[in-house]
Amino acid sequence: MSKSQIILDKAVEIINAHADGLTLIEPGELPAKTSEIRTRILDDLGITSEDPRLNGIRPLDPTAFATMKELASAGCHLFMRHGEQDSNEKISALKGAKKKIAQMQIDNNFHDPITARSAIELIPQLVLFKYLKEKFGTTFIIHTSNNQRALQPAQAISNVLGCALCDSRELTCINYPNKLTSEQEAVLNDGALPWTQEAVDAVCGEGQYKRIKDDMEARIPVLDDSSISTNTVIIDITHTQQINAVCEAKGESIQRLKCYGFVMIDRSGNVLVKKDGLYHNELTVSLAALPAPAYATPSTASEEPGDVEREEAPAKHIASASYS
User: What is the β-pairing status of strands 262-266 and 271-274?
Assistant: First the structure.
């Protein structure tokens, strides 16, 4: 069992043990409760704040609760990027394009789990989703690709919420060939696959660009009917190419999301692109300095491994056992 799976299993166990207590607290008390639950999980696993492998944990954004409460109230569909890929030592030692290409070849692409850091980073989000379900009756519907870096966090969310998990072929990541032609090497000169028909078809096979576009457009609900109920959150955990297709279909600029970043579509067809998802988009700290996540009260008024820094697209009409 991977280190990340041990962490996620313990997180699910302890968060579910706190379910009754979550119904008794108000939103302003959630940061302290989240910190308490996270500390209990890490203590049970023997993970200390000095562990150098845990540097770079992102805290939830201060507006995370307000954002999710508002989006859930109207009903929304999140297309979320997977967790951080944990490659073996041989691949981890590679640099640049060689590393990314190796990660995207079929065995590694399909079987690599998420990192321990990515599993720990998911914990506050698991608590937040559990709080929304237990306190406010929010319904969650979870779909995932079959790649482990999507399936692992999706399974943890499903287990925390006690909801069904559906794996969907159309959400599964494309693969790079194990042996690249000179044309494919030219397309993948920096390791990343450009979101163009010419590039996708050259690397993945003729017709794959159109297939991804058609598959993802079919997953975007008809938003002027009751396809999404109020107080319901649909989450598709998927990959960069699929998220690119959603952005293109909704007229949004193509940008690379960070792990657990998402594109949200609500019942009215409004789109919100959150490159960092519910996490703070600037602060990166060591676990030793990690503050408890903070949540604001809702206003009465709104490809894969590696990250590329880009500007976040603006919202449209949206207010705001041992680990070692």
Answer: antiparallel
pLDDT digits (tens, 9 = 90+) for 207-255: 999 999 999 999 987 544 456 788 999 999 999 999 999 999 999 999 9
Query: What is the DSSP code string of 153-215?
Result: HHHHHHHHHT--EEE-GGGSPP-B-SS--HHHHHHTTTS---SSHHHHHHHH-TTHHHHHHHH
Domain count, the chain: 1
Tokens of 303: 């490809």
Closest CA to 215 of 175, 192, 194, 245: 245
Tokens of 234: 């649909």
Q: What is the CATH number of the domain that holds 172?
A: 3.40.50.1240
State the number of CA atoms in the 13 A half-sphere of 301 facing the CB: 5
Q: What angle do CA 282, 285, 286 make, to 5 degrees?
A: 165
Beta bridge partners of 266: 76
Q: How far apart are CA 189 and CA 198, in angstroms?
A: 15
